[in-house]
Amino acid sequence: MTAVSFDPRINLPMGKNGHGVIIEEIEGLIRVYKDGHVERLPIIPNVSCFVTPAHGVAAQDLTIDKFTNLWARIYVPSCPGKLPLLVYFHGGGFCVGSAAWSCYHEFLANLASRAACVVLSINYRLAPENRLPAAYDDGTRALTWVKQQALNVSPEHKWWSSQCNFSSVFLAGDSAGANIAYAVAARLGSTTSNGESIISPLSLRGMILIQPFFGGEARTSSEKNMIQPVNSPLTLSASDAYWRLSLPLGSNRDHPFCNPLASGFGKLRDLRLPSVMVCISEMDILKDRNLEFCTALASAGKKVEKVTYKGVGHAFQILENSSFCQIRIQEMMSHLKAFINQ
Q1: Which residues does UniProt mark as catalytic (predicted)?
Q2: Which of 113, 161, 168, 175 is catalytic?
């Protein structure tokens, strides 16, 4: 999936659907037209929740906010007792992706079974129609909705909520989804009501950030020098295009949504954050930025655990099927299970 960036001042070929000039394109994934139309290409199929996941996991789609079309897919494993709840945000540069993508359906069903946890996969609003902080707002709204279920279990949701240990909640995501998980945790960690978390009785036990999608105006060594295969899901030009489409208009890559370290460690030090696990891919252009983020967390006094997966690139855990990547995926599953159940 090679990225192609376009200058909106240049007259580019007309789109086949009659919407005029293309002003941004990430090949195979998204086209944005000058008239505002956005075309997302079906490179990964959506699957119904009724496509039976492996490992005896039940899945169902749930409406969180019908006015913004915010919904989630929940995975409940057949395990006894109360289980941790993992709230998950999919990747896709804030611009593409879905909780219904087949790769996430398979990965999260497997995670629910392997880690013995309930997984709530959030389908948030996408940019550029809904630029940041829309996805962060949806993440916060999802946590508020879970709080409501914990306080007042309705018969409609009892089948899954009765399985949840709401005092053991984790925020997680990969790539842009990891950015969202961090942003939601940061919001919750800077907001209290009379000294109590605004999501009480939920208790946020940890964050899992898989290849978190951060950026900045200054390039890191891995961004400049890491050679990516032609089918890499995240090249530097694709990264830049995603940020142009998702950040507030007029912002650059040192906006705090993109670069949480742009203003130094002060704000990070003041946040009340749970334990953090950061999963890094050795061949990812984000590797150095992920390592810098881990160093900043530790310097700010936060509890952080980092794991680096050798010989694999960005999003390998959902997009790669080679026997080598399967070994790394099993390693990741073991690490996630240990972190969730520690």
Answers
A1: 175
A2: 175
**Residue pLDDT, tens place only, 30-44:** 999 999 999 999 999
pTM greater than 0.85 (yes/no):
yes
Name the burial class of residue 266, with classes exposed (0-12), middle (13-18) and buried (19+) by CB atoms within 10 angstroms of its CB: exposed
Does residue 152 share a domain with residue 60?
yes
Residue 59 and residue 8 share a domain: no
The answer on 37 and 98 residing in a single domain is no
**Domain check: are 112 and 35 in the same one?**
no
Read off the DSSP letter of residue 68. Answer: T
Residue at token pair 């040192």: 254
pLDDT score of 106: 95
> Could you report the per-residue pLDDT of 212-223, keeping only the tens digit for each?
999 999 999 999
Same-domain status, 115 and 39: no
In this structure, the answer to whether residues 157 and 97 fall within a common structural domain is: yes
| CATH code (residue 179) | 3.40.50.1820
H-state helical runs in the chain: 102-115, 134-151, 158-161, 176-189, 221-225, 236-246, 266-270, 287-299, 316-319, 323-340
**Six-digit token string for 251:** 């912002």
pLDDT in tens, 53-85: 667 899 999 999 999 999 999 999 999 999 999
Is 78 an annotated catalytic residue?
A: no
